[in-house]
Design a protein that fits this description.
Layout (H helix, E strand, L loop, with lengths): L5 E6 L4 E8 L2 E9 L1 H5 L6 H23 L8 E7 L3 H18 L3 E5 H7 L12 E6 L4 E8 L2 E7 L5 H11 L6 H9 L24 H17 L5 H27 L3 E5 L6 H14 L2 E3 L3 H4 L3 H13 L19 E4 L2 E4 L4
Parallel strand pairs: 1-4, 4-5, 6-9, 9-10
Antiparallel strand pairs: 1-2, 2-3, 6-7, 7-8, 11-12
Helix pairs in contact: 2-3, 4-11, 5-6, 5-7, 5-8, 6-8, 8-9
């Protein structure tokens, strides 16, 4: 272990307190402390509660990860932490904790963008990728199409202009009375439904655009439900769920296919919590097969927020000597445009 690059990855961008230890590209230990049960009574994540829970859980989670791998802080090569985007209170807990650990242990600090970490989740279980590749990130806060020309080299080709795909899933699930977390519950309900029962809109925006819009689709579902209630008509929930899910899959598949053709990428990778949806996976798998492209996606465990993806991204930033200093702060609205290349090394541009 002494000759390996050992990276401790810490993730606290939303409501999962997670940490992992990687030796090279090999996952040695991995712990996720979920807050789902805590927030379920509120129907969604309460930011103040999330940050307080992170304060309570971060130390024990890191201690468990190190103990499971039989390692200590002295063995580490560096500590990597998500510093944005996400909930500011949650991010602050992770960043402050990582800075304190790194400073006390005399180890380098690595700042990781949450979006790039989701891309790297694909490489935890799959061989080195063939560049250029296209990444589709679909979560509660983000829907992005990203061209990756090499390690740590990103170009955003398209993004949502309003609701993210996961946000739309959660809002429709809430309207259907399915509970929290909405995405998995809506997918489960949709298994018993007819995806052709309702002809919901598929917003493609102006010709040539690779951006997304899900607010119109969400509004169409809500209007359908409200109209039925006003008329006293019963609506079959699984049919609405299946039709909505199919519309989202159609939009994502068409935009992704257009991006593959335009970019010349021969590999598609997925990331984010919504990437665990089996209907979306199969639709995108079929789309890439038609185009003769390779399809790669993480196991559901690594689609949701986790420390392993942060640690692996940290591994490549370590190889590039991309280190943060003690001024590192949480940046809740961070985008991939905050990264740039200079003198052959990836640098970070800090706000303030």
């Amino acid at each position: 272990m002494a000759d390996e690059i050992l990276i401790l990855g810490i993730e606290t961008s939303c409501d999962e307190t997670a940490a992992a230890l990687l030796g090279g590209r090999r996952l040695l230990s991995h712990v996720v402390a979920s807050q789902t049960a805590t927030h379920a009574r509120f129907g969604g994540v309460v930011p103040e509660i999330a940050s307080r829970e992170h304060c309570l859980r971060l130390g024990p989670v890191v201690a468990e990860v190190l103990a499971e791998a039989g390692a200590g802080f002295a063995d580490l090569s560096a500590i990597a932490v998500t510093y944005g985007p996400g909930l500011v209170g949650s991010l602050l807990v992770g960043v402050a904790g990582a800075k304190a650990m790194a400073f006390a242990a005399g180890k380098p600090l690595i700042a990781v963008n949450h979006l790039e970490a989701h891309v790297y989740a694909n490489f935890l279980e799959h061989p080195e990728p063939e560049f250029p590749l296209l990444a589709l990130l679909i979560s509660g806060g983000h829907t992005h199409l990203i061209l990756m020309r090499g390690h740590l080299d990103y170009q955003v080709l398209g993004r949502t202009r309003d609701d993210a795909a996961g946000e739309a899933f959660d809002k429709v699930a809430r309207a259907l009375g399915l509970g929290y977390p909405g995405g998995p519950l809506l997918e489960r309900a949709a298994r018993e439904g007819d995806p052709a029962a309702f002809d919901f809109p598929r917003a493609m925006l102006e010709p040539g655009s690779l951006d997304f819009s899900f607010s119109g689709l969400k509004s169409a579902v809500l209007n359908t439900l409200n109209s039925a209630r006003q008329r006293g008509e019963a609506i079959r929930v699984p049919d609405v769920a299946a039709s909505f899910q199919q519309a989202v899959a159609d939009i994502l598949a068409r935009k992704t296919a257009a991006a593959l053709k335009a970019s010349g990428a021969r590999t598609l990778v997925l990331g984010g919590g919504v990437a665990a949806n089996q209907v979306l996976r199969e639709r995108l798998r079929a789309e890439t097969r038609v185009l003769g492209a390779r399809f790669v996606c993480p196991s559901p465990l690594y689609c949701t927020d986790n420390g392993a993806m942060v640690a692996l991204c940290g591994h490549y930033r370590y190889l590039a000597a991309s280190f943060a200093d003690w001024r590192l702060n949480a940046v809740p609205g961070l985008s991939l445009q905050d990264f740039y290349k200079k003198s052959g090394k990836t640098q970070l541009e800090f706000a303030g």
